[in-house]
Design goal:
7 strands; alpha/beta; Rossmann fold; single chain; globular
């Protein structure tokens, strides 16, 4: 397609970390029903055709493909992540989503943004472009980190807003969402939220590095975090996960 080398979203971390974050840092999705990949799969209609924008290493795509018997086409600008996704059996197009590419790929029953939109300077433009690939009854399924998570609030109280190599404070994040701001942003882009839930975020680094969490045995800690995320999702939820449809077609 384009002979110019593609820029990876990871280039946005330049200067904020001592070294470039590894492309495979999120290559660990599993079928835990409390976490994002399994919840996303539940939001995807069965046996449908899915456009996975920014499919990454395919860790989420492969779970959706298996659990929902979906036909997935991924689009991924990072060459290493695209290769890993292909190794998982995902049909991947290298590069960024464009109108020309949509004309080639055709229409889809669902568009998926699994922790992608927060990496973009103008997520609205990409969201609206992707929606143009949906059929009449198509849906958008997306996940974004919860910037109102207790760990971010606690650090802000201490005057800290430090970028990290992964997680909510990933140095490649350019946009930040609370549940309320996410719903409002989607409405502004012609989408209504049909379902919203929140992942527990048991694998966030804070639970392995900070006191008292790191002193609690893993199984017990995960159970506690899941309970807290159910009880106070806007405070303890790691990600907002949404299924949305267009307000007018």
């Amino acid at each position: 397609m384009n002979s110019t080398p593609l820029l990876s979203p990871d280039d946005n971390a330049c200067g904020f970390l001592a070294s470039r974050p590894p492309a495979s840092r999120y290559d660990y999705a599993d079928e835990d029903p409390h976490e994002a990949a399994a919840i996303i799969a539940e939001f995807i209609p069965e046996r449908c055709r899915v456009l996975d924008v920014g499919c990454g290493t395919g860790s989420v795509s492969s779970i959706v493909q298996r659990l929902r018997k979906a036909r997935i086409v991924g689009v991924e600008p990072d060459a290493e992540r695209a290769r890993l996704a292909r190794d998982r059996g995902i049909d991947v197009v290298d590069g960024y989503l464009t109108g020309e590419l949509i004309a080639i790929l055709g229409t889809f029953d669902a568009v998926l943004f699994a922790d992608v939109l927060e990496h973009l300077p103008n997520p609205s433009a990409l969201l609206q472009l992707a929606c143009s690939a949906l059929n009449r009854e198509g849906v958008v399924v997306l996940s974004v980190p919860n910037v109102a998570h207790w760990s971010v609030r606690w650090n802000l109280l201490r005057g800290r807003f430090n970028y990290e190599g992964s997680g909510i404070m990933d140095a490649t994040h350019l946009r930040w969402f609370t549940a309320e701001s996410l719903v409002g942003w989607l409405l502004n882009n012609g989408l209504r939220v049909d379902q919203m839930t929140h992942s527990a975020g048991t694998t966030l680094d804070v639970y392995y590095s900070a006191l008292p969490w790191r002193l609690i045995r893993r199984r017990r800690r995960h159970a506690l975090v899941r309970h807290l995320a159910r009880r106070w999702p806007l405070l303890f939820g790691g990600q907002h996960i949404v299924r949305a449809s267009r307000t007018a077609v």
